Amino acid sequence: MSSTITPECARCPIKVTERLCREPDGKFPPFCPTANRPDIVARAVSAYDEPETLRFAHAASAQEGQGYADKELGWARVRPAKSRIQEVIEFSRKMNYTRLGMGFCSGLRKEAAVVEKILTGHGFQVVSAICKVGQIPKERLGIQEEEKIIPGCFESMCNPIAQAYLLNEEKTEFNILLGLCVGHDSLFLKNAEAPCTVLAVKDRLLGHNPLAAIYTAESYYRGLNHKTNAKR
Predict the structure, then answer these.
(1) What are phi and psi of 136, to 5 degrees?
(2) Which pLDDT tens digits describe the chain residue by residue (232 residues)?
(3) Which of 19, 124, 187, 194 meets the CB 3.0–4.6 Å disulfide criterion with 119?
(4) Three-state DSSP class for 89?
């Protein structure tokens, strides 16, 4: 098959336990990258030979396996056993990290305080930076009054690059993102030097549970399936 076929794994119609990406003799659709892009797969596998990458990937895969209980009962009865915050703690220990960074949204400041308390209670040093650090007016980005949350008032811009720079300066070993906005999280990830993970993402409407809209995309949020021409 042509190696130029675009991967579309999200559209795969094969039963998950019968897919080529999971089983040596598995089935696959025409757009399957496991079947079509062996060059990319081989290049990726070679990247794991870098010692630190291998150590990181091994710890991540081991953490995945340890996140389940009743494994001896087989796939049908295996069950999740650990929360994400537990896994962040355990993964950090596997990697021998002691200095963690946290970039958080001011809207989740209470949650950030709880996370910081939990992490320090487990012996980690925590360096944290709030999104509004620097008190830079939104006008610096060219934001107009009508684009503000409350027009006519001073508003500090979110400053994810400064958040990343602060954690870089403090030599954090592993960074945790907590509730940064769409786009702001991207800028943080682009500028952070240490590896990063996401504890929670921003969803103002759904209490930071964006999958709620996905789970109800055929019912209450069915409007998501229809294009809109309205300007935003």
Answers:
(1) -90, 125
(2) 445 799 999 999 999 999 999 999 999 999 999 999 999 999 999 999 999 999 999 999 999 999 999 999 998 899 999 999 999 999 999 999 999 999 999 999 999 999 999 999 999 999 999 999 999 999 999 999 999 999 999 999 999 999 999 999 999 999 999 999 999 999 999 999 999 999 999 999 999 999 999 999 999 999 999 987 655 5
(3) 124
(4) helix
Residue 57 is assigned to a structural domain of this protein: yes
C-alpha triplet 26, 28, 30: angle, nearest 5°: 160
State the total domains in the chain. 3
Are residues 56 and 36 part of one domain? Answer: no
Domain span at residue 100?
84-201
pTM of the model: 0.93
Question: Do 67 and 107 share a domain, yes or no?
Answer: no
* 189 token code pair: 């990830």
The answer on 190 and 148 residing in a single domain is yes
